[in-house]
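Incident review: delayed structure delivery

Summary: a single-chain prediction request sat in the queue longer than the usual turnaround. Root cause was a stuck worker, restarted by the on-call engineer. No data loss occurred. The affected request and its eventual output are reproduced below so the record is complete for anyone auditing the incident later.

Affected input:
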Amino acid sequence: MKISDSNWFDVEEYLKTDDRAVLPLGSTEQHAYLSLSVDSILSEKVAADAAAPLGIPVFPAVPYGLTPYFMGFPGTVSLKLTTYASVVRDILDSLYATGFRRILIVNGHGGNSPVQPVTAEWMEAHDGARCRFHDWWRAPKTWEAVQQIDPVASHASWMENFPWTRLPGREMPTAQKPFVPFDRLRDRNAEGVRELIGDGNYGGVYQKPDEVTDRLWETAVAETRALLEGDWA
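Output delivered after worker restart:
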């Protein structure tokens, strides 16, 4: 169940028999012709689709993350690492205080990965707490599905292009964009990153048929659900 579709009575009743919850992490950053909220949209939707048959609460995606390298693109918002770590820790503390003990973090933005040690620190400080950090798009089965479809896949390319991340009336380029190697991005500031990648796509075709990306999505949902159902002992 999505927390946004629930009231506190619903959650209290749920906690009588289960203590699992899902916390999606997203970001607000450029994604070329796609929504600035791609990472939040995808992390929350894959979490909700995975948890729905299990009745596990899914909290709203945290809409801001760590993305200083995209600050050359208007609309991008980036938090400092210390701020973000504190936000995630405060959320986990709140979940624990109200009765949740097993938390699956579904992360939708690679730049958020440095906050992962917060989960280890949090578990050490809270008896009986468990927390799993899941980068949904690069989990083993999902990433294998990406590679089988098209190994030229990257930020703002076809692998993030779904009906729920597109914007009405925006046409996509039809040509495949040459891939920009990640090692050329690591030593540049935000202005240099924008100069290097142009429209924001790191490389690859911008869109594939929905029946292709539907298969990818089904794999991602199943892999995420398996983490919720798996052994937490």
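Verification: DSSP finds seven helices and three strands in the chain.
Action items: add queue-age alerting; document worker restart procedure.
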